[in-house]
Specification:
Blueprint lengths: L1 H19 L2 H27 L8 H17 L4 H11 L2 H6 L4 H31 L8 H26 L11 H12 L11 H8 L8 H8 L7 H33 L2
Helix pairs in contact: 1-6, 2-3, 2-6, 3-6, 3-10, 4-7, 7-10, 7-11
Length: 266
């Protein structure tokens, strides 16, 4: 256990140091976050001015996007590039048989990326948003606690889904578009691009039968009071259900992928 923690700290620290070596990464991250915030705020101010924003308020919508940007950092890793790069270089065979889990290396590297993005982009944007726009507080203390639990489960769901999608690179000659498909699914069905309460009824029904919304939308719906307290436990149970199903699928697809790797000779 101690070895695992030290290894995790070493990987995260090494990746973070590599990022902060270049100051342009810091300035570009802050600038990107500020521009995104300003453009999004201007867009929604104009939309609400038309009176066609539905049963929502500008503060609620902007609070959703401000918090979603933070969660998006935790749910933005794409493992397809790392796996595809290892396959193309031939390093995948050595990495898979190492004593340290290949998945542990992938997830640790993604956490390092999330850490650097939070420091350089998310926190400055969050501070500016708090000062000039404001943020809705959680509807209750219990809702906030359930929100944090739901966020944790949401990150697990995202990781499992992205791993499953990323394993397709074992069967593909090119892998650059795999991450695009993964992000597109979450943008459309998970509420990363738009709160689901703006969706038409038929599309909202489709989303309810898929796990994507349980990564970002459902936790934020709990925070903002869109989900009543009597449905908190049900939401958590559904998240646990999807974790169990996705974990079983991830193990199955991984065994198929490693079998293909062995057949091909590494």
């Amino acid at each position: 256990m101690i070895y695992t923690v030290k290894l995790y700290q070493m990987i995260v620290s090494k990746e973070a140091q590599r990022f902060f070596t270049y100051r342009t990464n810091i300035f570009s991250g802050i600038l990107s976050g500020v521009i995104t915030l300003i453009s999004r705020y201007a867009l929604w101010v104009a939309l609400f001015a038309t009176g066609n924003a539905g049963q929502s308020s500008l503060l609620e919508t902007m609070s959703y996007f401000i918090l979603a940007d933070i969660l998006f950092v935790l749910c933005s890793a794409s493992f397809s590039s790392a796996i595809g790069g290892d396959i193309r270089s031939g390093d995948i065979a050595q990495r898979v048989i190492k004593p340290c889990s290949y998945h542990f290396l992938l997830i640790s590297s993604s956490h390092a990326t999330s850490f650097t993005v939070i420091i350089t982009r998310t926190l400055p944007m969050f501070a500016i948003a708090l000062i000039f726009i404001g943020l809705m507080p959680p509807v209750s203390a219990i809702a906030f606690v359930v929100f944090l639990i739901s966020v944790l489960f949401g990150v697990v769901i995202y990781t499992l889904i992205d791993l499953i999608i990323s394993y397709t690179v074992f069967w593909l000659t090119d892998y650059w578009y795999v991450s695009w498909f993964s992000r597109a699914f979450f943008l459309l069905f998970g509420g990363m691009g738009l709160p689901l309460w703006f969706y038409p009824g038929w599309l909202l029904t489709v989303c309810e039968y898929l796990p994507f919304q349980y990564t970002i939308y459902q936790p934020l719906a709990i925070y903002l009071g869109r989900i009543p307290p009597d449905r908190f436990i049900l939401t958590i149970i559904i998240q646990l259900f999807w974790i169990a199903v996705l974990f079983a699928c991830e193990r199955l697809v991984w065994r198929m992928a490693t079998h293909k790797l062995i057949v091909q000779g590494g």
